[in-house]
Structures are given as C-alpha cells and as structure tokens.
Amino acid sequence: MSAHAELVLCLGFLWKLLFHLLFVCLLLFALLLLLILAVRLWLKSKRNTRFARTGRPAVGFFHPYCNAGGGGERVLWCAIRALQRSYPNVDIVVYTGDLGVSAHEIVDGARRRFNIVLPRSIDFVFLRLRLLVEPSLFPHFTLLGQSLGSIFLGWEALTEFVPDLYIDSMGYAFTLPLFRYLGGCSVCAYVHYPTISTDMLTVVRERNPRFNNPGYISDSLILSAFKMLYYCLFAVCYGMAGSCSELVMVNSSWTLQHILSLWHSSNRTNVVYPPCDVSAFLDVPLEEDGDQKCHSIVSIGQFRPEKDHQLQIKAFRKVLDRREEAGGGREALKLVLIGGCRNQEDEDRVLKLRGLCQEQGVADRVEFKLNIPFEELKRELSQATIGLHTMWNEHFGIGVVECMAAGKVILAHKSGGPQLDIVVPFEGGQTGFLADGEYSYAEAIEQILNLTPASRLQIRRNARQSVARFSDQEFEVSLLAAMEQLMSALER
Predict the structure, then answer these.
(1) Are 229 and 252 in contact (CB under 8 A)?
(2) Which candidate, 259, 247, 168, 135, places its Cα nearest to that of 478?
(3) 199-217, pLDDT tens digit by residue?
(4) What is the pLDDT of residues 434-472, one digit of tens each?
(5) Reported pTM
(6) DSSP codes, 314-328
(7) What distance in Å separates the CA atoms of residue 48 and residue 55, rounded to the nearest whole number?
(8) Which of 68, 107, 292, 409 has the greatest number of CB atoms lying within 10 Å of its CB?
(9) How far apart are CA 332 and CA 349, in angstroms?
C-alpha cells in the first residue's frame, strides 16, 4: 500500500473516530439537558403543590447558621421582621443547619440576643449536610471546598422546599444558579463580605504575608504563582455565580466596589447598611472626661485572627513606653479586650494573646473580657475613653458603630467600611480617627489622649449623631425599597 493510501486510510479512521466522539458528546449533552428539564419540572410541581395547599407565596432565606449571635444573624432577623410587617400574605422559611435546637428555641434566641420579636411564626427547613461548608473540613483550598459544599447543601435545601423567592443571606453565591435555573425561583443576595476580593488577589500577587496568606506561601514564588492562578479562576467562577442574582444588596461601599468588579451587576446592586442596635447605647452618658485618673481603651470583636488583636497589644505597648518616657506613668492607661470565643481555636488564640502581653510587658495593664453579658459590655463602654478596632478591610464594622453610639472616641483601621462609610465627617465635624499600623495607632492614641476634654466631647457628640443612619429603622426602609419590585411580583 502506498504512503498516500495509508494517509487517506488514517485520516478516514480519525474522521470516523471524531464523528463518533462528537455523536457521543451530543448524546450526553441531550441527556443532560433532558435531566435538567425533568428536575426543573419536578421542582416546579413541588412548588405548585405547596402553593395550591397554602395559597400564599413563600420567601426562603438561606442561612445555615441562623442560631449564631453575630451581625449577619441580626441582619437576617431584622429582614424577616421587615418583610412580615410589610407583606403579611407572604410565608417566610429559613434554611438552617442548626439541628440541635428547635424552631421555638431559634426564634426565642433571636429575641433574647437582638431584642427582635417577629410579628408571626415562620417555618424552618433543617439541613443535615451543613458539615460540607465547615472550613475545618477543608484545611487546604478552603474557598473551593466550601463553595462546592454549598452546592450540595443548597441542593438539599431546594429539594426539601421550593420557594418563590430565594434569598442568600450568608454569602453562599454558588447556590444562586441552583435555585434560579433548576428551581425556577427568583433569587437575590445580601452580601456581607465577598468570598474573594480584589484585595485578596493583590495580597497574593504582591506576596504580602497575611492571616489568609501564610509565610510559606508568600516566601515562595512558585506557590504564590499557583495560588494566584487558583484565586483568578475561582474569582471568575464566583462572578458567574453571583451574576445570576436578580437583586444584590451589599452592606457597605467597600463591599459594593468588590461585588461590582466581580459580579458585573451595577444595574441591580444596592447598598443596604446592616441594622445596628444603636438605641441600646444611647443611654450611656456624654460628659467631659477630664477628671478621669485612668483612661481605658476598649476593643470589641470576636477573637478571630483577622481582628488583629496582636496589633492592638503592640501599639498599646508603644503608647505606654512613650508615656513612661514623658513621665506620665503606666497606671493612667489600660487596654480592655472584649470579645466572644466560639470554639477551642478561639480560646487557644486568647492564650497566645495573653502570652504576647507577657512578652511585651503589658500584662498588668491589659484585661480580657470573654463572652460577657450585654450589661457588662455597656458598663465597660461607659467607662472607656477610646474604642479600638484594628481589622484590615473590615467589610462594615458593627463594633465601630456601637462604640460611636456609646459616645466613645473611635480609632479604627484606615480601610474598608470604617474608612468609607462610618468614620466619616458628620455635618463637617470629625467623628473619629483612623490608623493603619503599630506606630500609626500609637500616635493616634497619644493624639486622642492629648486632646482637651471639651474637644473629645465634641468628637463623641458628632459620632453619636452620625450613626443614626445605621439604625434598625433605616435598614428596614432601605431593604424594603430595594426589594419592592421582587416582592410585588410575588403578590401578583
């Protein structure tokens, strides 16, 4: 056989092979499409059956940790209360993974923690697969692992109950296409913090060590390049998932910037500041503090690595050293670290912070207040001069707002929500201070303490008046305005 004949035979064989592969791919695609259509019809029939039984549309909130006591949970319960007040003919369902408590205990917990009483009862769908979104399950590639896990958890939620409107209120963006394209639901999201941000990409690209970019990665060019590729691919997938949302609500200007760059949803994204219980702190008296013999600096925040309590302790050490050099004495100043410990990891972190205090020689001037009741928190704030916050790129900063509502001179990180939304001038007056490093924080603390009592009092007054825009009432108005179109469509 000639070479030409062999070439023709070989090309013919390759063409047949390619044709069969193409046929198989088309067949598999058609089967997949039919499966998706069948699932969608099945889920639609479940929703129609439910609607025929109740005659009422339903809104489902996806919040697997709804029984926790953080700011995200306060947003959840305030949102539910607002919708119940304005739309009495709409049922509310919460998807949760809190299997160890009853529905009554969850609602009662919201009442006790946040003083939020719902106008009427709501339903819960208890999810068994919440373990799939636990970060401890994914020591490496945590973002990818949790996101894939959220898809399985979302599938469990969708098959248990098909709502008319689905709201992701906890940041699981990969559930949005599931509910929209398989469940046929309207979908929206309230974003507290983007799963990945352009700042995270910058940290990896510039090889800066952070709590989420450990030294062994930032020190390695190869590992940094691999992580950069991983982050970029994940960011693309995250953006595609988020772009499925018909309405996006974000909690701050900082979050808005990142979501717009990733989700490309500028025509349907609104800033809805989270509800802060500012009224609870308004009875803390506003008086000049010139007669105080000891000024206290109070920090409020969970003992998590991103809160950067180490920075607070090191900056405090520098302030004490400066005051000793100036003959001011250590006894005139103390640092009070107030926060919650969620688990053993947090408790171990507190032990390390206590050890750092010993190393820095400030253990006698630093107090730790763990999981204290609200009344004790208010008492500490009423006695404090400065409210301290050191988290880099805090998405909002409820603790910052609470300190300002209590009439404290706030000193927060020069980034994120505190810089863009909270510690900003009010009617031309200063509302607080911003800093971004040990020396910067130490200098700011010295500057605050060197102000006259009358000057501090004016800043505190400005701060308290400025935080009225973060009240429960303002949150409800903004939320209902953003959701009006989607909610009106449900009632038609």
Answers:
(1) no
(2) 247
(3) 787 777 777 666 566 666 7
(4) 999 899 999 999 999 989 999 999 999 999 999 989 999
(5) 0.84
(6) HHHHHHHHHHHHTT-
(7) 10
(8) 409
(9) 28
